[in-house]
Amino acid sequence: MGTVRGARVVVTGAGGGIGAALARRFAAEGARVVVNDLDAAKAASVAGEIGGISVPGDASGVVPAAREALGGSIDIFCANAGVGHDGGPEADDSLWQQSWDVNVMAHVRAARELLPEWLERGSGRFVATVSAAGILTMIGSAPYAVSKHAALAFAEWLSGTYRHRGIGVHAVCPQGVRTDMLTASGTAGELVLAPSAIEPEQVADAVLAGIDEERFLILPHPEVARHYASRAGDTDRWLGGINKLQRKLEDLEAIEAASGTSG
After folding, report:
1. 186-206 pLDDT per residue, tens
2. From CA 14, how far away is CA 27, in angstroms rounded?
3. DSSP annotation of 165
């Protein structure tokens, strides 16, 4: 893939899951890869495996150190780090704030650092791991669904604003992926995500194909496109379907509570 071979790539949240799969795939395609993760040991492990460079720490501030590690420039930035919290309006403000900071503002802060260099030279590529929750929703997790909608909106804005100046933007929107985040999603994840869950490597394959084809919206689960069209075409009917899932979730949680088990 000509757009990837020899490219200087940064992947945040790359100590495991989708991020690690992306780092491995970019390295296999001949890219120089910075592996970023809050967990320094995990970042170092993945970087050692692929011959990459470990730059641990908060994804919000990784660009300067990653740029230096790559010799002064970044070609592709994968804003992959993310968090998921359960609950609705009752969820603590700290959980809403962390969702906003990690799932949205880390993307904004990275773009703020990257754009001057990219606009000056007329090229650069921003890959945002958004999740299907960003174009649909996720029952049981308002902080995640809301912040992922915002992440998609920011990626759309970047693409609409800068594509004529050589900036490529991609929004990656998988449904269930077999990662620690899916395991932690409890009954809602088992109901909505687990049945069609795919491996992180399949997401990485879809991302590389989407980059090669210059597609903004990358859907590792093709059926998401149909759901997205349904959401836009008949929103009330679509929301009725989401509410049906919600009622099913509540029934399952009631059964679990009665039996003393937990998803």
Report:
1. 777 777 777 878 899 999 999
2. 13
3. G
Q: Does the structure show a pLDDT above 70 at 2?
A: no
Q: How many residues would you count in the chain?
A: 263
pLDDT at 178: 82
**Tokens 């904004």 found at:** 108
Q: Are 46 and 15 in contact (CB under 8 A)?
A: yes
- Give residue 142's region: left, alpha or beta (phi > 0; psi -120 to 50): alpha
| 227 CA to centre of own chain | 19
CA distance 127 to 80: 8
Tokens of residue 184, six digits: 């932690």
